[in-house]
Amino acid sequence: MHHSNTIGGYILVLNSGSSSLKFSLYHQHSMELEWSGSITGIGDQQAKLLISDSAGKLLLSKEAPYLNLEIAAAELINRLDSLSARFPIQHIGYRLVQGGPIHRMPEVINEDLIKVLESYTYLAPNHLPEEIQLIRIFRESYQKAIHIACFDTCFHQNMPSVAKFYALPRAFRDQGLMRYGFHGLSYEFIMQELGNKTKDIEQKKIIIAHLGNGASMAAVSGG
Fold first, then answer.
1. Integer-rounded Cα radius of gyration of the chain
2. What topology does CATH give the domain 2-151?
3. Rounded to whole angstroms, what are the CA distances from 222 to 104, 157, 161, 199, 204?
4. Structure confidence by residue, pLDDT tens digits, 28-55
5. How far is 3 from 1, CA to CA, in rounded Å?
6. Residue 118 exposed, middle or buried by CB count within 10 Å (0-12, 13-18, 19+)
7. 99: closest CA among 39, 209, 185?
8. Distance between CA atoms of 36 and 79, rounded to whole angstroms?
9. Residue 179 in 3-state DSSP?
10. What distance in Å separates the CA atoms of residue 42 and residue 72, rounded to the nearest whole number?
């Protein structure tokens, strides 16, 4: 373990969608991108694996029947294992749609957190089950790595109550009904980028649209 530290370890970042798995590999210290890629069309006979280097140059393009997330994840783990001497992975970060009302800040994943996530699958039935499955697969393969959950709801946690709660009877609110917000990691990134390019971002009112297979909008005030 000590030996790989002297070379410098790597951070693997995973983002699973309904039919895709995106991944990036970063240098732990410089945070520079080493390579990134995706498996798209999961569940299809002609799913596609793409891997590019940090300059965006295509290193690998392959079509194969990745019929489910498990097969796609196994393919990625296989590729990473063959490169592991060059790229020792020490941390794995996962994008998660939802962690319920309490879990919003990034945190180290353990069995207890996985159980909590499983209890909230009803809040995001199209996303959480696959995201949890991915965590289980990679924790099994990378037992020495530190696994970290990053929640899309973190960005939205300080929404004013007028935005957070629905105009419905109080009983629903007491049962925990609220807006959690979507695509928070995307909004966070956009705000960082805007902050790098623009002065006084805290004084501006900003509307951001996140467009994709799932779309959402956010109004940001005071940064």
1. 19
2. Nucleotidyltransferase; domain 5 (3.30.420)
3. 20, 14, 16, 13, 7
4. 999 999 999 999 999 988 999 999 999 9
5. 5
6. exposed
7. 185
8. 12
9. coil
10. 7
* Structure token pair of residue 50: 């793409």
Catalytically active residues, by annotation: 152
> What are 131's two structure tokens?
């995201």
Domain boundaries, given as residue ranges, for the chain: 2-151, 161-221
Answer whether 97's CB lies under 8 Å from 62's CB: no
Question: Is 30 exposed, middle or buried (CB count within 10 Å of its CB: 0-12, 13-18, 19+)?
Answer: exposed
pLDDT confidence bin for 6, thresholds 50/70/90: very low
Q: pTM for the full model?
A: 0.91
Strands 89-96, 146-151: pairing is: parallel
More confident residue, 8 or 7: 8
Beta strands at 107-108 and 205-210: parallel, antiparallel or unpaired: unpaired
Cβ atoms of 63 and 79 within 8 Å: the answer is: no
